[in-house]
Design a protein that fits this description.
Strand content: under 5%
Distance between the termini: 86 Å
Number of strands: 5
Number of helices: 20
Largest sheet: 5 strands, mixed
Helix content: 40-55%
Shape: globular
Length: 506
């Protein structure tokens, strides 16, 4: 009896999971998922629901193809001085011809990939094909996953690609494919300087699951060398990536990442080494912080309680909270902070689901019904707890609703006003826009209203006099005084309701 229930706390990693019809179904569902997510993203984009970092990412990804240098944008300037977003470089081949919708499609594809690789991992862990499809779908449509990929307001961060990459890495590590694991780990490293933490966590989980899945074998067969190498590479990559970023000269709008931390004043940390010393000397403060307490609850409900089958992961995975603690902005669930935790949640939940599925398959009918009923109850309670954690508008994603703050009539008015800019404006002409109007200039020479010092005066101005962000409100005769723009230098081209289009006088 105990031997049967012991499977709840162990894994059964198979050497290979041959492709069958269930994998074909998973692939079809993955494609459908990609199209569904892309439809929601594109609808929100055209509904004027995105601003900020989506458009920064487009410019940074395209800059090297436009002769402006690596990772350059019109918001911060030298992005590399802040973050090592190297994965944006190959994405430039998509952002250059397609602009923002291209990056939104990449994100949607990563969601479909996450679903497909989740089913493959479950198959590798000995789960029946039909059960694997359902379990992966439950995880994908959980409120935490939906809110993470929804990226309300921004639409895209390169960090949102990490969970899918983490699942691919997890799969290759479980199969102990050395080259494939290293290549995937390097792809994760290229996302950002703290992305190696995500790869390290996946390596630890894969190494542990491989070890406990072969209790009767010698250590030689239980040791997962690709996982160990990935862990070593991950730990080594963090200081290297920080050093690369630190070597860049900061600009007016692009301060080094170490000078953007909330726990210390800018200039306090003189180099990346000082950061490690600071963290090491404040471990007690970090572990006792509200960030870690919130993270423990998220890990509990985010894994649908399956973390209780592997509670030791709560100890080894605490490093996923260190950046949020350092930044000190109470934004643990924001995608650029949450991506490591999101990838970890998927991996732990998958091994937990697999353990439960294997256990009940060997139980009597009555026991199986009882365990299944309990699991459904816990899943429902966890989903309810997750809903309480995510913003209210995340629920609209299930119904394909955008997060736009504009009414249909307002969007029609905006389209009518700024259509003339799209027709007459030249791609190279500098343009500024109110917060939610960036879409009209997503593939143009867009500048930010509050970051015009030392930059060319805009030829075009796309204004919203009722912008929710007051510093970006623009009317026919008023604009943020700190921008340095003189409204008398511009003439009104078109105006409807709250929207106005202005052009610099000849």
């Amino acid at each position: 009896m105990w031997r049967r229930w012991r499977e709840m706390f162990t894994s059964n990693v198979t050497v290979a999971a041959p492709w069958d019809r269930w994998d074909s179904v998973a692939l079809i569902l993955a494609v459908f998922t990609t199209l569904w997510v892309f439809a929601l993203k594109l609808k929100t984009f055209y509904d004027l629901g995105y601003s900020g970092d989506l458009f920064v990412s487009v410019q940074a990804a395209r800059s090297w193809l436009e002769g402006r240098g690596l990772l350059q944008d019109n918001c911060f300037g030298n992005v590399l001085a802040i973050h090592g977003y190297f994965l944006l470089l190959p994405l430039g081949f998509i952002a250059k011809p397609f602009g923002a919708p291209g990056l939104l499609f990449v994100l949607a594809t990563s969601v479909g990939a996450a679903y497909f690789w989740a089913t493959r991992i479950l198959r590798l862990l000995g789960v029946n094909g039909r059960v694997a499809l359902i379990a992966a779908e439950v995880l994908l449509i959980s409120p935490l996953s939906v809110a993470f990929y929804q990226e309300a307001g921004h639409g895209f961060h390169v960090e949102t690609l990490v969970p899918a990459l983490s699942l691919i890495l997890f799969y290759f590590l479980l199969r102990q494919r050395m080259i494939a694991s290293i290549v995937t780990a390097l792809a994760i490293f290229s996302v950002k300087e703290d992305a190696p933490i995500a790869a390290a966590m996946v390596a630890i989980v894969a190494g542990v699951e491989t070890w406990i899945s072969l209790p009767d074998k010698s250590a030689r067969y239980r040791f997962n060398w690709p996982a160990v190498i990935t862990l070593i590479l991950s730990v080594s990559a963090i200081p290297v990536l920080l050093a690369i970023s630190w070597s860049q000269s900061p600009t007016t709008y692009a301060r080094h990442s170490l000078d953007r931390l909330g726990l210390v004043a800018p200039g306090t940390l003189s180099n990346p080494g000082a950061l490690f010393v600071f963290v090491g000397s404040n471990v007690a403060h970090w572990l006792g912080s509200s960030v870690v307490r919130q993270w423990v609850w998220i890990m509990t409900v985010g894994t649908f309680g399956t973390i209780l089958l592997r509670p030791y992961y709560l100890v080894v995975a605490v490093p996923t909270t260190v950046v949020t603690w350092l930044v000190n902005r109470n934004d643990l669930m924001w995608a650029p902070r949450f991506f490591s935790t999101e990838g970890l949640l998927w991996c732990i939940t998958l091994v937990g689901f697999a353990s439960i599925a294997r256990t009940i398959s060997h139980c009597s009918k009555g026991t199986r019904t009882a365990v299944l009923t309990t699991a459904i109850g816990i899943t429902a309670l966890s989903a309810s707890a997750q809903l309480a954690l995510v913003p209210w508008f995340a629920r609209g994603a299930y119904l394909l609703r955008s997060t736009s703050l504009y009414s249909s009539s307002e969007r029609q008015a905006a389209d009518a006003v700024f259509a003339r800019y799209r027709r007459e404006g030249k791609p190279e002409e500098p343009v500024i826009a109110s917060t939610m109007l960036f879409r009209y200039a997503h593939d143009r020479n867009l500048f930010w209203l509050n970051r015009l010092h030392g930059r060319p005066a805009p030829i075009w101005i796309l204004g919203d006099s009722a912008d929710n962000y007051v510093p970006f409100r623009i009317s026919a005769d008023t604009i943020n005084a700190n921008s340095g723009i003189r409204m008398e230098d511009y003439t009104v081209i078109d105006r409807r309701g709250r929207f106005v289009l202005l052009r610099k006088k000849e």
